[in-house]
Amino acid sequence: MKLVIAATGASGTIYLQRLLAQIDCSAHEVHLVMSASARDVAKQEIDDFKTPSNVSQHAENDMNVPFVSGSARFDAMVIVPCSMATLGRIASGSSDSALLRAADVFLKERRKLILVPRETPWNLVHARNVVRLLEAGAIVMPAIPSFYSRPDSVAAVVDTVVWRILDQIGLPNPHTYRWGQQSASARRKKH
Fold this sequence. Notes:
- By secondary structure, the protein is α/β, with parallel strands linked by helices.
- It has a single domain, classed as Flavin prenyltransferase-like (Rossmann fold, 3-Layer(aba) Sandwich), CATH 3.40.50.
- 40% of the residues lie in helices and 13% in strands.
- It contains seven helices and six strands.
């Protein structure tokens, strides 16, 4: 698969870090775009943010990247975390950066665009922007963890969201907890 992974200035860098760690970046072409605000937040939230060596990193304003053109074939774009400001810009059709232009291209080409906002609560403007994006074909997945797998660490809680993202882009993780299976803690005790 050819993937664009992006991050903007919302809290939640751990979701990005765990997603990158769970994609086999040697088997898939992965492009990373982080806004300046995302980089600032990453420094505040994670002591040692790691980007896998196989990931191609791009500046948020580099309009020469292939994924800003509809003629370049990519399978999915994930923005995690996605600030409500970025979500609103995408909903309005703004394309004044490579990140925003790529999101616009994914919408117009009917390619999978997944936005993972972490912000809460929402105001009416946020809700209306989410509706506009859903109507345009985006998938909006608020970073809301689940607990039926009985996560026992922050990383395990984060993974409940990351697994849903992976499912949406078509890269399920074999460690994903599926409803009706044993709890993750029960599986760990057996191993």
